[in-house]
Each structure stands twice: as structure tokens, then as C-alpha cells.
Amino acid sequence: MDPAAFAVGNRLVGNPAGSAGLEVTLTGPALAASRDCLVAVCGAEFELWAGRLPVPTWHALYLRAGHVLRFGRRLAGARAYLAVDGGIDVPAYLGSRSTYLRGGFGGLEGRALRAGDLVAVGSPLHLHPIDRAGTRWPIPSWRTGTGTTGIRVVLGPQADYFADTTIDRFLGTTYRVTADADRMGIRLEGTPLAHAGETGIISDGIVSGSVQVPPDGQPIVMMVDHQTTGGYPKIATVIQADLPRLAQVIPGDQVGFEAVTVEEARV
After folding, report:
1. Tag placement on the chain: N or C end, fewer CB within 10 Å?
2. Which residues contact 158 (CB under 8 A, 6 or more apart)?
3. Is 146-266 CATH 2.40.100.10?
4. Which residues contact 75 (CB under 8 A, 6 or more apart)?
5. How far apart are CA 219 and CA 203, in angstroms?
6. What share of the chain is helix, strand, coil (3-state, %, to 5)?
7. Sign of the torsion formed by the C-alpha atoms of 251, 208, 107 and 60
8. In what helix (H) or strand (E) does residue 7 lie, and over which residues does it extend?
9. The pLDDT value given to residue 135
10. What is d(CA 165, CA 257) in angstroms, rounded to the nearest whole number?
11. Would you kindly state where each structural domain of the chain is located, as residue ranges?
């Protein structure tokens, strides 16, 4: 969901960018290290302990065999990412080591982790990983608050299904994140958006960041586990650079949008 935080975690422990890690949503686990290893937790802010010692997020941490890394109270954001030197070692499925919970495949038996699981990790890629301990990454300033505004979108591909006044309303409304928000999509609540005509389209392709507007006028932002096609008009598409910001919202947070051009989105 938050590829930026995921990539930083792998960078801190010296892994290739695509190495598998653990995604922690809202509440975190306690994980015992079976060997000495370098770890990093990035993304949402959690209280974090290595044994009895409080440790920081966005840092490379060295765990001795038998030490327990324990997540405590969530302080800000929704999702944190645990990277381990060598990467999480699970079989690739359809070219990925991700878990798809709705389909029940990928990752570890296609399910969320539960108490007692043994999660295999690969061999460290560096001879002395402890030398990287203490390396830190600056926390992006926008991660320190709750909610987010100024999420950049490119209008369309079905912006012509809405009057100009409706598009202005979409860009001028601060929406509330509802409880119906997960890896598939984020339902928002605010001033309804009226369709200029038909409320549906012939189903076509959907990408991460597509903002669908169903008949009730409340927009839905599609996220990484989105379906492949959909039949609601898409008023806009969140640019790729801002998807990590949406990955960190929780129900009750406020979200607002601003329009940019394709050229501005690519900068």
C-alpha cells in the first residue's frame, strides 16, 4: 500500500528494492528473532521495543537471536513495514511474494500471520550487517499529522460524465474517510457528486488511484488490491506519487484533492 515506506525499509537493511517484507496495519505483532538480524520499521509511527529497550522507527536496528521486536501503540498513520536483511523468504506466486487475502493465495499460505507462525528469512546479503545498525532515514514531514489534503489527481478518464460545477465541488470538498477502507479501496463521505447523465459506464480498466463515483455520489479511491475493471465513471486518478499518503489514512481522517496536469504529475 505504501511503496515509499516499503522501499526505505529495504534500503536501510541493505536489501534489493523488491525484497519481501511484512505489512503491519493498525496493530502490530511481537516477533522473536531466531538469528541475529538487521531490521527496520518504516511507514506508520508505532511505539516499538527490542526486548525492553524502546527503539525508533525509520532506523536500521540490530536484533540478537532470541530478542523480541514488539509493536506497541499506534501513534500516527495506518501501515508500517518491517524489512529484514535477506528479505522474507516465501514462495513467489504469479511473480510476487505478496499476500492476496481476498483470493487466499501468495505470501504465507495466502493468509494473515497468526500467533506461533514461523516466518523464514533469506540469508543476509552483507558480510557484516551490524555495520549498518543506526542508519536512519528522515521521516517525511507530511507523515506527522492526521488526514491529508492536497492529494494530487489528474482529471478523468470519465470527467466528461460530470458538469464543471461538480468537478469544482469534487476539488473543493474535504471528504471523511469511512470505515469501509482497506487494501481494495477507500470510500469517502462528503457532499455528493451528481452525474451529468448516466451513472454507469461499460466496464473498463481500473488502476490504483482511480476515483470512481457510484450512483450515491460518494467517491471511492481504488487501491492496490483493486479489481481489474469497473462500471462506475472515474472522475479523476490519484497520481502515483501521492498514493503512499492515502495508504496511511484511517477512518475519520480528512482527505482533499487538487488537480494537476499529466506533465506536472510526471515531475
Report:
1. C
2. 201, 233, 234, 235
3. yes
4. 44, 45, 46, 47
5. 17
6. 15, 35, 50
7. negative
8. helix 3-13
9. 94
10. 15
11. 3-143, 146-266
Amino acid at 152: R
Which positions of the chain have pLDDT values less than 70?
142-147
Q: Yes or no: say if 8 and 37 are a contact pair by the CB < 8 Å rule.
A: no
Give DSSP secondary structure letters for 216-246. Answer: T---EEE-TT--SEE-S-EEEEE-GGGHHHH
Whether 207 and 182 have beta carbons less than 8 Å apart is answered as no
CA distance readout (Å), 66 to 128, 174, 198: 19, 47, 61
- pTM, two decimals, is 0.92
At residue 233, what is the residue type?
P
| 90-121 tens-digit pLDDT | 999 999 999 999 999 999 999 999 999 999 99
pLDDT on residue 177: 97
Distances (CA, A) of 223 to 208, 227, 247: 5, 9, 8
Residue type at 243 in one-letter notation? L
